[in-house]
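Colleagues,

For the teaching module next term, I've prepared a clean inverse folding example: a structure given as tokens, and then the sequence designed for it. I'd like students to try predicting residues themselves before seeing the answer, so please don't circulate the second half yet.
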């Protein structure tokens, strides 16, 4: 048990019990990819893979230890600024910095963090570590923050302190998840509508084994194309139609056109998917997930051969309602919705096909929708 592991490691390192233990989930996204930085729709589920933090207050500088990554560099929560920190400790120090930007005064802490979310696997270990620490600071220093306040703090940390220019989806899912529920989020207005995951469907994460890095150049290039298209359109992609792409005063570049085409069509698919889920229309759900994958592959060009092999394997397998790349892309995982009574045979078949077509060993993780970031001890 991870909770016991971080508690034990805290005791071993610091010679006493932690004051608080918190946890925050990763997420998987059903549909709505690369739409959350232009005010669009996303449909994530907070998963049962979590990050745990055992923490206590200190007056000296903050020290953090990761079961997964080892010793972090020390920092002062009251003064740390962007650019000062290196490596993974940025994801922790940046939370304190972001809290200061909204007028809060987080003191120093010592902490042990551990996770069973694969790091850099597209399941948002980054938002999970941010939110688990946000809750720890909030609890220990009585900062009076609500879950909906902590999501933007995590995002500010990731955007401005870590330097990864991501949208709000990951942090909202980790902060506001609910057991048994998927979350249809309008990221323009930060509104969540919960929608139950049907009882007869399993949610499977099909990990290609290929890792990505969001701070890397490709993600930034896609984002620049989206922003370029919005500048030429004179409004957000959320408020644009496909026809508008041919009517800009200054023509879009080929890549701006393709990225915008993905985002605008993805918003329409996400809305249609939410309706199909409500109506129990499994055929439409499957078609929309497949179209969403193709759009990520052809228009957004954020897929990779392994993701395409994995999705194709799932599409050919009995019992699979739908499957597509999930998360930022360039590696990571596909998500699949699979009939529960066929899920074991389906996963074996998908992984066998994937091994054959990609030459790599994939991994399947079954997950369930879980509650968001919270104190657990
Ligand atoms: P993802 O969010 O898809 O897992 P990111 O690249 O956004 O991928 O974030 C992964 C990074 O977050 C890791 O490389 C590491 O720097 C940091 N991180 C997340 N969880 C932990 C952890 N438990 N210990 C140390 N660093 C972590
Ligand atoms: Mg991340």
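(Answer key — instructors only)
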């Amino acid at each position: 048990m991870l909770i016991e592991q971080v508690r034990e490691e805290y005791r071993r390192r610091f010679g006493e019990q932690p004051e608080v233990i918190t946890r925050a989930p990763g997420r998987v996204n059903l549909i709505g990819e690369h739409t959350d930085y232009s005010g669009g729709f996303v449909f994530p589920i907070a998963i049962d893979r979590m990050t745990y933090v055992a923490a206590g207050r200190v007056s000296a500088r903050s020290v953090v230890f990761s079961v997964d990554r080892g010793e972090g560099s020390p920092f002062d929560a009251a003064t740390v600024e962007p650019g000062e920190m290196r490596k993974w400790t940025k994801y922790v120090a940046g939370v304190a910095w972001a809290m200061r930007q909204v007028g809060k005064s987080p003191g120093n802490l010592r902490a042990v963090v551990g996770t069973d979310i694969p790091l850099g696997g597209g399941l948002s270990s980054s938002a999970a570590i941010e939110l688990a620490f946000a809750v720890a600071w909030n609890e220990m220093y009585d900062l009076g923050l609500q879950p909906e306040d902590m999501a933007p703090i995590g995002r500010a940390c990731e955007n401005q302190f870590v330097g990864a220019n991501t949208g709000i989806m990951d942090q909202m899912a980790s902060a506001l998840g609910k057991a048994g529920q998927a979350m249809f989020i309008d990221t323009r207005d930060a509104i969540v509508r919960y929608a139950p995951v049907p009882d007869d469907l399993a949610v499977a994460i099909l990990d290609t084994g290929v890792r990505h890095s969001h701070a890397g150049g490709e993600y930034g290039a896609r984002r620049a194309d989206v922003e370029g298209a919005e500048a030429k359109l004179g409004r957000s992609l959320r408020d644009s139609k496909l026809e508008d792409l041919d009517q800009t005063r200054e023509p879009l570049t080929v890549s701006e056109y393709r990225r915008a085409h993905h985002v605008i069509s993805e918003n329409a698919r996400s809305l249609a998917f939410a309706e199909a889920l409500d109506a129990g229309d499994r055929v439409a759900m499957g078609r929309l997930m497949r179209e969403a994958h193709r759009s990520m592959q052809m228009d957004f060009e954020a897929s990779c051969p392994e993701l395409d092999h994995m999705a194709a394997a799932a599409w050919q397998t009995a019992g699979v309602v739908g499957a597509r790349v999930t998360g930022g892309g360039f590696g990571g995982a596909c998500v699949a919705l699979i009939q529960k009574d066929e899920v074991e045979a389906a996963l074996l078949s998908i992984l066998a096909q994937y091994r054959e077509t990609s030459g790599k060993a994939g991994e399947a993780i079954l997950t369930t929708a879980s509650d968001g970031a919270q104190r657990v001890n």
